[in-house]
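Notes from hallway chat w/ T.B., transcribed later so I don't forget. T.B. wanted the structure written out for a chain they're using in a teaching module, and asked if we could keep both sequence and structure tokens in one place. Agreed to drop them here.
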Amino acid sequence: MFRKDFLWGGATAANQFEGAWNEDGKGPSVSDMCTGGTKTTSKWITKTIEPDRHYPSHEASDFYHHYKEDIALLGEMGYKCFRLSIAWSRIFPTGMEEEPNEKGLAFYDHVFDECKKHGIEPLVTISHYEMPYTLAEKYNGWLSREVIDHFVRYAKTILKRYQGKVKYWITFNEINCTQMLLGDIISSSMVKDFSGPIDQIKCTEQARYQALHHQFLASAQVIAWAHQEYPEYKMGNMIAFVAAYPSSCNPKDIVTAQKYMQNYDWYCDDVQILGEYPYYAQKLWEEKGVSLVMQEDDRRILKEGTVDFTTFSYYMSVCVGTEGESDEIGGNLTGGKKNPYLKASDWGWQIDPIGIRYAINAVYDRYRIPVMVVENGLGAYDEVVDGAVHDDYRIDYMREHIRQMKLAAEDGADLMGYTCWGCIDLVSATTGEMRKRYGQIYVDKYDDGTGTMERLRKDSFFWYQKVIASNGEDLG
């Protein structure tokens, strides 16, 4: 059984959901400079806004003007928790101001007040692929150590402001994506002097791991300060968890899968949960030609800023090794070999519900602190027929993953909550599409920017409502 105070809900990100990209003093973020794309055509990043291009984040799902309606719908579903992020450039438009933008701060006051009105606990991600574009231009994003101070000032500002309104915080979304395929643009924002397709951004391993080190330091400083100033706060971290299975029982493939998970799943978690780089980090750096530039106090800072709970996104698993299927598959910012036992989504992501049980148990076994799944869902084509969306495929996906989460809880893992991804349709981070829909609530918005923004309850809305009301017992 799930614990009685289980945090059922859903998740969004400001740059994919809010819109109002230049209203009420907000400055441009890196995401605001990205055009739309498809699963076969890369998004572009431009140095200026070009009038003949479509920038999906500029309007997105327009939560900025629909937040009361949207939160009321989440309340109707019975949500206990709403994971959302704060747009850094809505608070500090260039990232370098000494004083915050009051209109930006006030917007989130209103959002959190609405959450409270509907009995919903906010879970706030401080940085969710969201950096003021000015910082990316001036400093090349997280590659510069100077960005740390700007981030800490921003984080302290919102932690102070929302005391009494927000209890649960995550410093960085999917921080390990800095190591993965699109980490350069999505997570690190290392786009200085770049314009063009984002799949042409080339970043050295040295730059990736140095930028990641700076993010670790920023996170640790914020967490240590929050623990001192606001002991009631619960501070968490997040990775994109990818279960890696050996592609055969060849012992070489077993070791390959183990190493894959060390590099992509455990490396970041070890630093943020245990407060130090893992034992294999030195060899990993040597293999990748990385020589981290550290200052004298860095290891102490990491040790003093560890998290209270840990979270991850889970969408898929991969196979790795030398044998087995030769077909390569893609997915949530990473890839691997095709698993012949699994089916795939419309976007080619392998669907593996049992993998979420494996992930929860593996994380809890390693760290023994509360675990939360904060992203999970099915991106699919939804069709409105006679004013309804019959998304049985999404219900099936969620049912099987929740069933496996329940088994993980029964295994003994301390699972504190589940927020499915994109509970209200939003823009895809990887492709910039609206057609790749995740939500239980349909938004009338399309890839060309047209649409009425009308909200529509899908069949999954009513199904998830029953799941929450029964605390996961009614999955029919």
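Follow-up for T.B.: The mean pLDDT is 94. Might be a good example for the class.
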